[in-house]
């Protein structure tokens, strides 16, 4: 995940997964992009 830009549907599904898992336990997300660049990866959304 993350090698290609995400379409809007894919970004929404990823956000929903992280939101769902938020209250269930620890999550580790690694990236080589700064948080400022995430909007570019998530199709400017």
Give a written overview of the molecule.
This protein is 42% helix and 0% strand. By secondary structure, the chain is mostly helical. It has one domain (8-41). It starts with 7 loop residues before the first helix and ends with a helix. The model has no long low-confidence stretch (mean pLDDT 77).
Distance between the termini: 17 Å
| Strand segment count | 0
Number of helices: 2
Helical content stands at: 40-55%
**What characterizes the major β-sheet?**
none
Instruction: Detail the poorly predicted runs.
Output: none
* Quaternary status: single chain
Mean pLDDT across all amino acids:
77
User: Could you state the order of secondary-structure elements as H and E?
Assistant: HH
- Give the total of domains: 1
Range of strand content: under 5%
Rg, alpha carbons: 11 Å
Specify the structural class: mainly alpha
Dominant shape: globular
Keywords:
single chain; 45 residues; mainly alpha; 42% helix
Could you give the topology of this structure?
Layout: H1 8-22, H2 38-41
Pfam families: IstB_IS21
Protein name: IstB-like ATP-binding domain-containing protein
GO molecular function: ATP binding
């Amino acid at each position: 995940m993350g090698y290609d830009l995400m379409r809007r549907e894919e970004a929404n599904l990823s956000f929903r997964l992280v939101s769902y898992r938020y209250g269930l336990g620890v999550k580790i997300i690694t990236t080589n992009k700064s948080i400022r660049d995430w909007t570019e990866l998530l199709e400017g959304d």
